[in-house]
Design brief:
Length: 225
């Protein structure tokens, strides 16, 4: 059901014990129920409100992804894993000042990630050309980060998710503007990353949950390949 994203030999050597699972899904977002998602966030807030940032950072699953960030050269204190970041920014406060709503597709995947404490990613599958893979940048690759109007050149040795023609993301750090979810998105990739200290079953459970939420909102179909 889930594909394993291929890695270059250099990445396999550096990231022993890491595996990225992915699934492609087709959907019709016309009937997305944003209020349903708000209720999900309200329920999650009940679980997390009042906790300190230190308590959140010390949770076993979250600590495992912090260690992974260190392994790939990111500072988790400056750039915390996505699940930790969402919890600390929105859910530990006594009152929800702002819902972390981006797009119904992204929001559903984020909710599944928070419920399972497994970071998940999603992007528009129609914007991908060829096979997705994980590799290390050689330096000079063009990358327009999500939310940015300017194109950057990447330095060498960065962990990147690519298709056959371009960089899709600086992995676990910042996606590209080119394949972001929009109102025109009808096909998506959803990815989950297993790291040391996290079982493959945990990642599958989070990916399964993302599909449950998406099915409740959209006419969802699994696309092979």
């Amino acid at each position: 059901m889930y594909q394993v994203i291929p890695m270059s030999q250099a990445v396999e050597k550096q990231l022993n014990g890491v595996k990225v699972l992915a699934i492609r899904l087709d959907l019709d977002p016309k009937n997305a129920n944003s209020m349903y998602l708000k209720n999900e966030w309200i329920n999650l807030h009940k679980d997390w409100k009042g906790k300190s940032k230190l308590e959140v950072s010390q949770i076993e699953h979250i600590a495992a992804y912090q260690n992974f960030y260190k392994l790939i050269g990111l500072n988790p204190k400056k750039t915390p894993p996505s699940v930790q970041n969402i919890i600390q920014r929105f859910l530990i406060k006594e009152e929800i000042e702002q819902f972390p709503l981006i797009h119904p597709i992204v929001d559903a995947v984020n909710i599944a990630a928070i419920k399972n404490l497994i970071p998940l990613g999603t992007f528009d599958a129609e914007c991908v050309e060829g096979e997705i893979s994980l590799t290390l940048s050689i330096g000079g690759e063009k990358h327009r980060p999500l939310g940015s109007n300017s194109i950057q050149e990447l330095g060498p040795g960065l962990l990147v998710l690519t298709d056959s023609k371009k960089v899709l993301s600086q992995f676990c750090y910042r996606d590209s503007e080119e394949q972001k979810i929009t109102e025109n998105t009808r096909s998506i990739w959803v990815l989950g990353c297993q790291v040391p200290g996290i079982s493959i079953e945990d990642v599958i459970k989070a990916l399964d949950e993302s599909q449950v939420l998406l099915k409740q909102m959209f006419n969802l179909q699994h696309t092979e390949g």
